[in-house]
Amino acid sequence: MSVEQELIERALECAAEDDPQLNARIYQNFYDAMPDAEALMSHVDDGVRGKMMSEIYRLLLTEGVAASDGDYLAFETKTHANSYFVQPEMYWGFSAAFLKTLRLSAARVWSPVVEQAVSQRLDAMTAAIHRAITQNGGATALEIRMDQN
Ligand code: HEM
Q1: Burial (CB count within 10 angstroms: exposed 0-12, middle 13-18, buried 19+), residue 69
Q2: Structural domains of the chain, ranges and CATH numbers in brackets
Q3: Pocket flag, ligand 1, residue 127 (CB < 6 Å)
Q4: Mean pLDDT taken over the chain
């Protein structure tokens, strides 16, 4: 197992052990940063929120997620865009809220190397999501920003 993988697993395990409210806190930080995302999820029950979080943990624990889960991400981002109206930039907002939450919830094992490993992995997942959105024919947040300038 790579050192990066070990650090990520230890941080996620620590957060899960030390913070019984971990998922609720991630969603709350996400909603505080992105009220539009909260509005999109207002009808979603705890079961579906839990299912979404377990998929996100699975993706985060996967090394080389773009290669292994490209088809899954293409499917999920298409459904998220067309049926749930999720905007591309919301994935970066989610990623930032996740990191912010984990820093405190996994404080017992947190350090600069853990920060680096977790943020690199979140970036890899979010970049893979944006590649999937582009492949679906949608514009990424970066392209939208470039169009506006
Ligand atoms: C970070 C990557 C994400 C993954 C892997 C993911 C995955 C999932 C999964 C597995 C579900 C359960 C239903 C289904 O299979 O479609 C779901 C539901 C949902 N997700 Fe996500 N999600 C992600 C990010 C987001 C973001 C950023 C938003 C923004 C608000 C969002 C909004 C929703 C909504 C509204 C539903 C409920 C749909 C419904 O049942 O009406 N997701 N997500």
Answers
A1: buried
A2: 3-142 (1.10.490.10)
A3: no
A4: 93
